[in-house]
Amino acid sequence: MSDRGPKDLLTRTAEDSRCSGEGRFSLPCAFRCAGEGIRYAFLSQRNLKIQGALGALAVIAGFVFRISQAEWLALVLCIMVVAVAEVVNTAIESVVDIASPEWHPLAKSAKDAAAGAVLLASIGSVACGLIIFVPHLFALI
Ligand SMILES: Nc1ncnc2c1ncn2[C@@H]1O[C@H](COP(=O)(O)OP(=O)(O)OP(=O)(O)O)[C@@H](O)[C@H]1O
Known about the structure:
Blueprint: H1 27-44, H2 46-64, H3 69-99, H4 105-140
Bound molecules: adenosine-5'-triphosphate.
Adenosine-5'-triphosphate binds at residues 45, 47, 89, 93, 100, 103-104, 107-108, 111-112, 115.
InterPro entries: DAGK, DAGK_sf, UDPK
Membrane topology: Multi-pass membrane protein
Protein name: Diacylglycerol kinase family protein
């Protein structure tokens, strides 16, 4: 049983950190861990690869159609919102798999809700994509 108080548990110590020998988790270390998290989500989630490919296509279309600054803002935001939702979904899946390797209704609810968040972000992004690109496509006709 640990003799650390609740406040201590909020502070990462050198003993806790597998990455840094210093008392605090160094900034480069924190960035590296975040990068590893994104890499893990990208490699383990087929959906993230598909979403990444669609996002890249949307960026290419943005250059082709010379979309406005406001349209770029919406496009970048949409791509990032979907990516963030998918990375958080990956984190939730991992935590659920640790906490509840066996079938449990709450584990199901947690994973389904996380997947639902990705779906909502994706639907919103498709809608934004249509709002941005359909007028540009019609302008070609
Ligand atoms: N421990 C569990 N208890 C109950 N239901 C579960 C459990 N693990 C998974 N499920 C159900 O199976 C579904 C798929 O879970 P899984 O872990 O395979 O996610 P996934 O297929 O990798 O999802 P994604 O496509 O978002 O990556 C969940 O949405 C949930 O309904």
